[in-house]
Every structure is written in C-alpha cells, then in structure tokens.
Amino acid sequence: MRKPIPSNRSRRSPFGAPFRTPLRTSLGAAAATAVAAGLLCTTPATAAVPHRADAPPGAAETRRVDVVARVAAFWDQYKSAVLGTNPDMNPTEVRNEFLTADLNAQLDAWAEQNGADPIFRAQNVPIGRAISYEDSGAGHATVIVTQQWSDGSSNDVWYSVPLDGSRIDGLEDPPA
Questions:
Q1: Which residues are CB-contacts of 137 (< 8 A; sequence separation ≥ 6)?
Q2: pLDDT of 114-159, one tens digit each?
Q3: DSSP secondary structure string for all residues of 114-134
C-alpha cells in the first residue's frame, strides 16, 4: 500500500508558517498587482470630482455616488407615484420631499406652458431610465437621467444636485 503524499497545507516551515507553493505565491503576487493597479487607476468621472484638502480619502467618490443615488431615488419614487404604485406618496409629495420649493415652482410653470409632466418632459411615463454622473463644480453635481420610452427612443434630463446633501435644485433639458 502506498503512503499518501502530505499536503503542503499541513506542512509548516521551521518558523511555524505554512509553506508557500509556487502556485500560491504566484496567485498572491497577481492579486497584489491587480489591487495596486486598481488603486492607481482613476476614471475620468472620478477625476472630475473636486477634492477638498480636509475631505477624507474617498469622500469625492462617496459624494458622486450619493448624488446619483439621490436622483435615482427621486426618479423611481416619482414614477411609482405617477403610476399609482407608491403607497406612501403622491407625485406632489415626492417632489416636495426631494426638490427645492423654487425648483417646484419652475416645474409647475414649465408643465403649464408645455402641457406635459415636468419631470418626464412628456405626457406619458417612460418605461425605464439610466442615470450617469456628468460633472461637478461650485458645490453642485450634474447628473443626467436618460429616459427610455416604449417606442425605443430616449431623452436626457439634466439634474443639478448640491454636493452638501440638500434637495435637488435644478432640472432642465440638455444644453443645445
């Protein structure tokens, strides 16, 4: 009968540390290289966020994610309210929760002038959306909502969102 070959996992060096096989060493080096490369690369969207000297590392990325999440929460809740599937709020209450009073007044005027929903910029409700972070400066971020329609078309609506976490204060069609 043959003796089983001992596993490297059970073997220890004279110092008590597990032996490193070439495969484990290579995998560890590859993982360390990938982590280092990922930390050293900066995407253009992240680079566009200004970095305050007193902000902790990663704060700019956190602010970027926060403003996108805030616009997504608003849009999703507003759509649900318009469709009647938001059990907690109607469209006006959603707008009051997420938007400044000045923006709400501007949107009411836009709706009266255009005969359409001021958030969706149309008379019907989009079937979906994609949200992207565009840029930031002067304490505000620009977030673009690309609304998808049942006929396959789409349109963009630009949101201005304060980086300090307060209410959305701008919503407009994209610049021409």
A1: 50
A2: 999 999 999 999 999 999 999 888 899 999 999 999 999 999 999 9
A3: HTSBTTTTBSS--SEEEEEEE
Structure tokens at 78: 């507003």
Contacts of 167 (CB under 8 A, 6+ apart): 98, 99, 100, 103
Helices (H), strands (E): how many in the chain? 5, 4
The answer to whether residues 104 and 112 touch, using CB atoms and an 8 Å cutoff, is no
**Which residue, chain included where needed, has tokens 């590859």?**
30
3-state helix, strand, coil in the chain (%, to 5): 40, 20, 40
| CA atoms within 13 A of residue 63's CA, in its CB half-sphere | 28
Q: Look at the pTM and tell me if it is higher than 0.85.
A: no
CATH number for the domain running over 60-172: 3.10.450.50
| Chain length of the chain | 176
Residue ranges per structural domain of the chain: 60-172
**Can you tell me the distance from the alpha carbon of 32 to that of 17, in angstroms, rounded to the nearest whole number?**
20
CA-to-CA dists, residue 28 to 38, 56, 153, angstroms: 15, 29, 47
